[in-house]
Amino acid sequence: MMTMFLICFFVGLVLTLLITIFGVDSFEMHGDTSGAHGHGQGHIGPSWFNMSSLLAGVTVFGGVGYILNKVGMTSGLLILLFAVAAGLVMAWLFFLLYAKVIYKHDDSMKESDFQLGGQLGKLTVPIIGKGMGEMVYVLQGTTRSISVRSENGESLAKGTKVVILNMSKGVATVTAFSEYD
């Protein structure tokens, strides 16, 4: 049993260090049925089974089991129960840290970041006939620019307010935006 506790402790510790150094925490099991992995639609919040929480639990399980064996606790079942309880508590604490601190500030790109239909902006480079121009727009507090074409091949002057109709191959199709009173 001592060997199992030592293996759990050292494997958990080494993998935790690797995740910390290389920043890989992509092992998330969840019931997302939208077909997309990660934090897309249909998946709200972090997974209960993330790699950091899992490894914290395994590491503490191994460490507590080893320590209880070394201090002279003789009941193998009692050692196992204490080790499992400590591992579960630590995994839960890491999940809370992950959910409340780390995941809360996760600004990973989402599919909705690329759905620009209906986005308003202003031309910074005019569109001449069927040629291309450029527009600027604000998305999530950041000013961005994108190449654009007019919907019907009409020319649009610099400074014209436009709205994106759709995207194709990284170029937005726009039309002049008129404000109605």
TrEMBL record:
* Record key words, sorted: Membrane, Transmembrane, Transmembrane helix
Q: Which residues cross the membrane?
A: 47-68, 77-99
Residue span, Membrane protein NfeD2 N-terminal transmembrane domain: 2-104
Spell out the protein name for this chain.
Membrane protein NfeD2 N-terminal transmembrane domain-containing protein
